[in-house]
Amino acid sequence: MWKSKQVINEKGRTIRTMICQNSNPESSKWGEFAPEDGPCKNWVEVGANATAVLCSDCTQRSVNNARGASIGA
Ligand SMILES: [Zn+2]
Fold this sequence. Notes:
The protein has one domain. It contains one helix and three strands; from the N terminus they run βββα. The chain has one helix spanning 56-65; strands at 4-8, 14-19, 43-46. It starts with a strand and ends in an 8-residue tail after the last helix. The model has no long low-confidence stretch (mean pLDDT 90). Bound molecules: zinc ion. The site of zinc ion (ZN) has 7 residues, from α1. Zinc ion is lined by residues 20, 22, 40, 42, 55, 57-58.
């Protein structure tokens, strides 16, 4: 299970955030797309039922590295 925490955003609303899966690339489905200089440290806003999240940076890397996938279709 990934770390999550409640934070107050700039609008004063309480939101739930979760650490990017690539904070622990060995446990991440997307570990090969972790930052080259170390584990990812990004937190992402998630819904109450989310159990894992990949941040937009890591998502972007996975998109860029995706082989034969049709992106943006
Ligand atoms: Zn990430």
